[in-house]
Amino acid sequence: MDPEVMSYSQTIYMTGLLLGSLFGGALSDRYGKRAVLLVGVCVKAVTAVLPAVLPHAILFLTLRCLAGVSCCCINICSFSLGVEWSLPKYRIWPPALLSFSFSLGMMALAPLAYLTHTWTQLHLALAVPQILCLPLYYSIPESPRWLLLKRRTETLEEYRRHSPEDKHFLDLLLDTEGKDLQEVHLETDTPDNETHTLETDHTLETDHTLETDHTLETDHTLETDHTLETDNTLETDTADNETHTPKADTQTWEEHTFSHCGHMRSPTILLRLVILSYIGLASALTYYGICMNVGRFGVDVFLAQFFSGLSEAPCLLVPLLLARWGRRPICMLSLFLSGSFCLLSLLASRFYAVPGLVMALALVGKLCMQTSVFVSVLYGIELFPTLIRQKCVGLVCLCYRVGCILNAVVSPRGETIPLAAMILYGSGPIVGAGLCLFLPETSGVPLPDSLEDCDKQPSLHLPTFPSLWSSEGAQRMPQLTKPVHSWETDPEKPSHNPQDLN
């Protein structure tokens, strides 16, 4: 194939990732995360096989774009499904395991590339495991929260009937996170029961009145008949009103479902979108800036690829840190350390010129950046309400993919990474660490279903500049507001306290 055409393969792949972030979240919100995930893994397997069978330049670039779209959809849906099928205290582990599997794949790529002699053999070696694992993906269940929101309780009942363990876990999951949605469903089913009760009472009253007509005198019978007709009319009107109630509830639910744009215009949602989008952009510039230029540190490219994957393996320990210190402190610390180590690698390359030291510092910064990406993905799932969660995660992923494309298009030339690029890789995450101050802490808090739940999440109140100069403002330092949860404000509402799970 033409080398000049093949030089655009990385840019085309990043463009596919961008397209996947544009449509992957919206499609999963509409058709379900499981359906989009299954389509994504099938498309990814096909795009891995065809380039080895049909080595044509234009076809290869087209398949690279489709591979990027499918990879982005797989990442969005797999992370969301893993988090939504976990209890609050275990919610930090699925992203860690998925990130660790990504690290294993990067390490396995180095010996595969070393043992294969052509790129077609490498494609076949990468495609065979994907094809063999396709039947396993059909056992993945759909998101329980999405099923409740879409009123697909039949599927949930099927999950509950699989085994006693599944029934116990699903009941525990819904009792802790989906109680409100279950109550809405029960309220919708209530009018039918009430209508049936009214009709039964009406039949009993009619039979009782007929028996009374046979025993009482004629004048009294006429009065009873008149009373019966009046009661019959009132009960019929009441039953009709009760019968129309589910339709009205359905219309109200549909109006609520299609009011996503109103949620997106909320200042709370917009602020979180802007901050996470910037963090995603800065993370992509730093992470892929190091990954795509790992061979420019003066070390063997296969060893550099292996150590690049190995440097991300400690991310498996991140959940232990998150369980102790929470999401926001770890996200801030990882962003700050990532930028700092990138700047240190810049200084080492200028004054010491030891390739191993420069690569080690850069890979430590890459580890910190991978940690921040892992935390920000979990953060994005926990910060946005259920109805628009995938759309918001998709927009954040969009900015992340824009950073990937910028790295692919504006790739540094030469054998070393230039000074301006390393300054950009180091300063962007440090600014993102400061922006994390405006995000709430979501550790141990149930996933929000509405804007009200988002507003109840504990946030950090920063004093304004004029108040800092006053004597009272000097004493008011930034403090976390006490978390306001539904179990604290509404005594009649079922408890969602995460401590009840222990």
Fraction of helical residues: over 70%
CATH class bucket of the largest domain: Mainly Alpha
What value does the average pLDDT take? Answer: 73
Overall geometry: globular
Strand order in space, largest sheet = 1-2
Unreliable stretches covering 5 or more consecutive residues = 176-182, 187-258, 462-502
The gyration radius over C-alpha positions equals: 29 Å
Total strand segments:
2
The CATH topology of the largest domain corresponds to Growth Hormone, Chain: A
Count of the separate structural domains:
3
CATH superfamily of the largest domain: MFS general substrate transporter like domains
The succession of helices and strands, N to C, reads HHHHHHHHHHHHHHHHHHHHHEHHEH
Q: What is the first-to-last residue Cα distance?
A: 60 Å
The main pleated sheet reads as: 2 strands, antiparallel
What CATH architecture of the largest domain would you give? Up-down Bundle
The chain-level structural class is mainly alpha
Helices, by number, come to 24
Beta-strand residue fraction: under 5%
What does it look like?
- With 502 residues, the protein is mostly helical.
- The chain has three domains: 3-140 and 264-438, Up-down Bundle (Growth Hormone, Chain: A), CATH 1.20.1250.20; 179-212 and 225-248; 458-501, no CATH class.
- The protein has 24 helices and two strands.
- It has a two-stranded antiparallel ribbon with strand order 1-2.
- The longest helix is centred in the middle third of the chain and has 40 residues, at 218-257.
- The radius of gyration is 29 Å and the shape is globular.
- It starts with a helix and ends in a 13-residue tail after the last helix.
- Residues 176-182, 187-258 and 462-502 have low confidence and may be disordered.
- GO terms for molecular function: transmembrane transporter activity.
- Keywords: Membrane, Transmembrane, Transmembrane helix.
- It comes from Salmo salar (Atlantic salmon).
